[in-house]
Amino acid sequence: MTGILIVLHTITSLLLIAVILMQASQGGGLSGTFGGNAASSVLGGQNAGNVLSRITTWLATTFLALAVIISILSGPDTSSGSIVQQAAENRPELPAAETMQAESEEILDLGDK
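RESULT FIELD:
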């Protein structure tokens, strides 16, 4: 399922790049470079900008929605509680440490002086 969504996401991103590059900018963009404004004549003159901006909006929305869906589906499984709680439950039990009680009469001998 995630693989199909990633393929759709890739296709959407490539289409989004192509549509953005076809839009006319102040310098003419790539729409004027290929075919002498063929995109404008095919899409209807002045309405070419409106159609391309609407397509860009739909592709951008699809791109973001697919990104969110893919991240949710491929994220870690967090249904069993917090990570800290799982680590505390899985912590190995250590045996109780035995305390050494020093006798009050013992003196540590550091050598003869």
